[in-house]
Amino acid sequence: MNISRFFGATNREAMRQVRLALGPDALIISNKRVNGGVEILATDQTSLPDADAAAAPAQPSPAPQQARSATLRAPAPHAEAGRHPPGADLMGAIDELKGSLETRIDELMWGSQLRRSPQAVMLFQSLLRFGFSTALLRAMLKHMPEQAATRAALQWARNELVRHLPVLASEDALWQPGLALALVGPTGVGKTTTVAKLAARCVRRAGPGSLVLVTTDTYRIGAHEQLKIYGQMLRVPVHVVQDVHEMRRVMQTVRPDQTLLIDNVGISQRDRYIHEQAALLAGAGRQVERLLVLNAASHGDTLDEVARSYAGDGGTPLRGCIVSKIDEASRLGAALDTAIRYKLPIHYVSNGQKVPENLLFLSAADLVDRALAPAQANRTLYAPSEADLAALLSMTQPADSPDAAAERRRQQILLPQLLTGSARGDALGMDQLRAAVALQDEDPVLSEAYDLWRSRAAGDLPPAAEAIDHLRRVAHGGLDETGQALVVHARQSLDWQGRRGAWLGAAWFDGQGRPLAVATQQAGLADGWHTPQGARLTAPSAADALRGQIEVETEGAPTAVLHVFDGGSQTLLRALSAGGRHWLTACSPRARIFLDDEPCVLSAAVQSLMFQPLDAQAFWPLLSAAGLEDDRPAWWAASGRAELRARGEPALPVRIFSLRAVDPRDGRLLRVWHAMAGMAVEPDLERIARALMLRQECHAAWRQAAPLLADAGREPLVDRAVFAAQMGLAAWRLAQDPSLAPVARVAARMLGAADRLASRQSHAGLLKLYALKELLAD
């Protein structure tokens, strides 16, 4: 009798395969859940020995392995002659019924959740489009918080994926003396090239004498010659082995402290030789760790089949995986999905053919962010559309329970009165509260601040380096179609637990002046200088600290960045101009320049410039520019050219700017700003004026956020600085952005104020909103 194995994502799918292969009378031997789905062992009942065989004379005892097999195959002892064993029929029917019931219950619960939560439908569809499997998404989305808005749901899904994605803790955890590492996987996934990249890393870490290369690939023409060429370039020995005896002989020549990298022949996951390869590595006479190479460009079902076959090939357990060809893959989700479901820690990812540079060591957050990158969310033919899901969900409409409906009515009456009731007796409606929560979830600045606030409340504030890397990716992804970007740098005094110091921070804005996220944060006290990369005893000069911050934010930026800051020495400005950086600095009116070869101060030089009126929307989306909304000023700006000169240095050409706020009723000058910029900056008056205003507003926002650094807490200073900066940016946006007016109104009412939220109340209002979100989520 032949026993067949069937696998499906659900019990119903596996049973369908059984019926197609063996017919309706198939005998189910076992039914169990495994990684990624359900496994069924079944046989055709017509191949069973009939009961007469049970009455035959006793035969000699079989071997132990045969005895175990016979136990599985033998019919029930009480079976009647000439009939199929009724016990087996009954157990098979019970197993099938149980599996069908489990599947049906699971599908009903899943469908019920989708009907209750439209955001779960959206998230399910979005993640399918990114390549994740239905099996993983069902398991994950069952735990999604209810009433989550679109952006909050996506952020929750990202955090869940980051938390469950296994990755190698550090490269040092892999490269231990005496490591024997074999790459396995199907043909064409890039094993030989990846071995060469790993070899280069090993040689760079410990020298050529620390490494030995081995290949078992004698099938492909030129395969071992390719590895030998790499070995000659790295000056390391390369051995070709064909069987376990040659493998053992090679192992005896390798020192215990040397690293051994083994390139194996590619084997289809359906090839029987996969078990022989596993036996070859297991019998090498030395512990060989195996890494499975997963081709990111493969379909998810193919990756699942590969992982299942190699995980069950009878060899030593897989240590993890390497994801190859991510530069060729339209979606990265399937590879990450496979790593999660089969618990295969990702060691490296390969993003090209170049040796050794196209091999990356990435964190879980980096991998998930790449998988969820908007650029990959292209139209796909292999994920259900919104219309498809809507049609499926509309097939059934569950009845609402009376108790749940009564509880909702009670909440809708009492909660708004409790939170937003005024002395006049009026209150905002429940729909307004929910709309405010949903709107803040859609705003990237407020939602990122909420994530940090919640992490800190749970005692799990992320390290500054990790938080800034994530926020910087958010900022890059939020740039508008113009591609223009501003980074505002601000320096202010700091009071940290009774000690005084300086706080230097940065924040990203798009070309229209919308805040995106905070960036690098640094802080200095008398006992040292603290950065996301670590602390050091001596603090850099103010110019060096600012220049380092500018270089960090410029590197890797998707577009040219205009850096806006205060002051700056000639040395700094010359260095930035020489490096091709775009810079704008707010200056004192007494700043010394040269105009037409004559020395003068900046305030005198701008008197000769031609001022032009700015459009009334120049500072949109600011409700209040420089606190002058009551005066409704007219704005005028001018630009010109000048030079900076220093002894022993060539003249540095610069642009000079002046911005004026004028009372339109009597022409009275309300405020004046002066600035200089490098010649690489275009003389766009509106953009320059907006940048100067954002510099001032950013300073004000972080001054109000400074108390968050001084309150009780055990987090490191720079970790807290990132939290305080993002909270300050969010509070400022809440008070200033007209699109968030409904949210600001709810915050103001919860503070017992009028419908307008004052800037000085924005931090308190923001915390009230976050508490409201938590309350409604329950």
UniProtKB/TrEMBL annotation:
Residues 178-373 form the SRP54-type proteins GTP-binding domain. Transmembrane segments: none annotated. Keywords: Bacterial flagellum biogenesis, Bacterial flagellum protein export, Cell membrane, Cell projection, Cilium, Flagellum, GTP-binding, Membrane, Nucleotide-binding, Protein transport, Transport. It comes from the Bacteria. It is found in: Cell membrane. It is a peripheral membrane protein. SMART domains: AAA, SRP54. Residues 177-419 form the AAA+ ATPase domain. Residues 50-88 are annotated as: Disordered. CDD domains: FlhF. InterPro entries: AAA+_ATPase, FlhF, FlhF__GTPase_dom, P-loop_NTPase, SRP54_GTPase_dom. Residues 50-70 have a biased composition (Low complexity). Necessary for flagellar biosynthesis. May be involved in translocation of the flagellum. PANTHER family: FLAGELLAR BIOSYNTHESIS PROTEIN FLHF, SIGNAL RECOGNITION PARTICLE RECEPTOR SUBUNIT ALPHA. Belongs to the GTP-binding SRP family. This is Flagellar biosynthesis protein FlhF. The gene is flhF.
